Amino acid sequence: MNANRPPVSVVVIACVYLAVGILGFIFHFRDLRHPDGISIEITEIVAIIAGAFMLRAKNWARWLALAWMAFHVVLSAFGAFRELAIHSLILIVIAWFLFRSDARRYFRPAKIEPA
Hints:
The chain is an all-alpha fold and 115 residues long. The chain has one domain (8-107). It has 5 helices and no strands. The protein has helices at residues 8-28, 37-55, 59-76, 81-98, 101-107. Helix 1 runs antiparallel to helix 2, helix 2 (37-55) packs antiparallel against helix 3 and helix 3 (59-76) packs antiparallel against helix 4. It is globular and about 55 Å long.
């Protein structure tokens, strides 16, 4: 695990993913009776996983978070333009914060020093 402290931006984004995932899971739990219910719950679980593992400095988790948001951009492309614009803007902001130099340092694997 990386000994660096996470940048505030990464903590905030990870906590938002955790909150959205948990609250979405609770809110959509009743939708399990519908055919799309399981897929909706899976997307909420993916958000929880991305948030939790970003806090543990796992590089794959920031890519998962970005893919999760990109998935929402694609879904919103079939809806109203305003929804597409908002999701696209959120994706750009998240990508910018997750790939800044401080975030790259945080997600970089710790180097193992020879004994």
